[in-house]
Task: structure prediction
Amino acid sequence: MTDDEESGARPGTRPLDGIDALLGGLDLSRKVRLLTGASTWRTNREPAVGLRSLTLSDGPAGVRGETWDERETSLVLPSPTALAASWDEGLVAELGALLAAEARRKGVDVLLAPTLNLHRSPLGGRHFECFSEDPVLTGRTGAALIRGIQSGGVAATAKHFVANDAETDRLTADVRVDERTLHEVYLAPFEAAVEAGVWAVMSAYNKVDGVTLSASPLLDRPLKNGWGFDGPVVSDWGAVRSLLETAGAAQDLAMPGPDGPWAAGLLTAVERGLIPVGVIDEKVRRLLRLAQRVGALGEPRPARRPAIPLAEQRRLLRRAVAAGSVLLRNDTDLLPLRPARLRAVAVIGPRATAVRVQGGGSAEVFPESVVTPLQGIEEALRRAEPRATVTYRPGLPPSGLPRPLDRSWARNPRTGEPGVLVRLLDGSGAELHAEHRLSGRIVEPSVTVEGAATVEIRARVLPRAGGTWTWAVGGWGPISLTVDGTAALSGTFALDSDDPTRVHVAPPLRCASVELTAGVEVEVVARRGLTADSGVATVLAAAPPAGDAAAALAEAVAAARAADVAVVVVGATEENESEGHDRETLALPDGQDALVRAVARANPRTVVIVNAGGPVAMPWHTGVPALLLAWFPGQEAGHGIADVLFGRAEPGGRLPTTWGTVQDDVPVLDTRPDRDGRLHYKEGLHIGYRAWLRSGTPPAYWFGHGLGYTRWEYEELTAPAAVRAGEPFDVRVRLRNSGPRRGREVVQLYLARTGSTVERPVRKLVGYAAVEADPGGTAVAVVRVPGRAAAHWSVQQRRWETESGEYLLLAGRSAGDLPLGVTTTVGRPADAARHGGAEALGVPNLQEDDGERSPVVL
Ligand code: BGC
Result:
């Protein structure tokens, strides 16, 4: 039985009112002009048809808006990994609506999110920004976010189409993936996005099978002519690097502008007949359709909707932190902590105060405020009677890595305000512009001034510690640094990369050592010559002298020993989870492993909180009684974490990705292309838990794993005895809350088939549903199994096919813990009818007539 590629897809291109008429009103040059951006974040306007320019913005953990300026703050959501960890499409849609409200507040029409690439390797630099290792969970979470965003009249952009699952050499990496894997694993989330009605898709930088994605035939089929995507394909920033290949493909909009190969040569190419006019018309049609959807065509810009009250928005963000936090272990039911029973709490680890709320790169936004774990814990205990004391100890000396100056330790030399002075100077050093900024990381000054030759960051800094400080300037081109008038650094640094993140957003730091005296203020001046193509960012950063590691550890251990409970927050640094490069190692940096071990030895009641966007190695994990994964939790971090610690909320998260104990165990790790620039997806269909199942090595925590504050007994799984190939059906899982409090359980359903004639994963997720019940209560999870679940992509036939026969359905709490199973027969309609009777099809049936389909308890 076959299930055609087209089936289940949305109808093809939908003509929206009047678009063809508008198209007729544009001459060729006007049409072509529309196909390249007007600026970094805007498209061109076309008054002739009442089209205003569209504003695009990243995405996906907040909406930055048109400027990269720390004074233009945004709400910061938990990282996409945390959203997927909630397995809660309702919540994700609510967060999508919040993003839409933020987009409208900032005048953004098109949000560059969600990121639908997969967690193929835990080393992937943008792991935090993608949802999961599983195509079904990624597709469902992405679809929910898209629905939420677009419900607010803002376009979502499914990105980066496709196989952009690592960052090493991302502009050129040539992913070699077999066609079946491409369809079943990497394209599947994008297909779900199209089914959810996404309004835009972004093509990736990389290649698949030797063809760069902005010129790829995959944009045509399956994206547009297979699945029926009717919006524009927007390029990743700078990804249109050729003329005829990309313009002749189904790539529609080249961003950013105003320059680029299309701006330079597309009009001539069409005039010379190298690109048919019809191809241009189709691109413009799609762009106009997008404009119509976001209200940018023929109408004045829509009034900004009344903002959702900030307190309400923050409550939602706080709820999302708890909903996405994954409790990996809770031996002896240490959590939740009971505030009234605590006398002394030790909070330990640099991340307890310097919590990392988001990953790095184009996804970064600037929060108005951040609640740290320490603040959240203190606030939660403030209300308790008697009130516990809270002692904070970092446990580690400063890392020695320079951090951009900020308001807490720098002041503007001209005004005295906390922050820095940024100036633009002309060739003679005369001031053309000055502004007060809050950070030493200036991605772009707020104005462009003609004749500006130098950007300068100037600050007065009062060193708390004396000794050798590391000072650093980040950027490209001619750079200098003076401290109290003495030159500390000078040189010219040529670009070594064309990756936009490294060039414009996070340039490398050039360091110098400077001796400072505690309490003696110094004036620091960083300058960077503005040369052509040297990027926009300038950074002034510093690190205090390295402290005494042994003393810092001893203080933390002493605090832990004196406390009823120790809470250690460990995690990633800015250097190791960011766009533009992959991680080298999963190890926690800066001696954090030793810190965890020492604290856990000092206090058997130790809770470890991991603050990271993706997997880290936790060689100590079995030695700590409670282990909570908080991801990059967004700005309400401390509130949400405290809610979980003290039981105001259940930890709702279940792992969206399998976590190994040590890096060497991870079955799919490599992110680096070979010498020919090829990155081979040798593992085929078997990524994530599928790879772990095949490897035979158990991971530390399986995909899907996560504890709540109650317990569940899985009692019964019922499924139809026979189903028709290609048709969805429902499976019911009955379970009982056998624990002490009301809770929520995410019931997961996996499909397996032995004796298959085609290669298959050991098992794969096909559906899930969450239930809630009071203590002692029973709940029935109804899990919808999509018609595609048993199908495979036939490379010979170039369509979906389904093998008839018996399949095993397994239900439980993770890919590695599936207490219930039942078989069902998938067949051609006629077979299925003979087998169980037509009325049995699609009808839940615990017991088949021949007795072979009774539930199997594994
Ligand atoms: C990233 C995209 C992002 C774009 C615009 C690119 O470097 O890969 O995800 O949307 O920049 O910031």
Notes: The radius of gyration is 28 Å. Confidence is low (pLDDT under 50) at residues 1-15, 832-858. The pocket of beta-D-glucopyranose is lined by residues 58-59, 112, 159, 236-237, 362, 500-501 (CB under 6 Å).
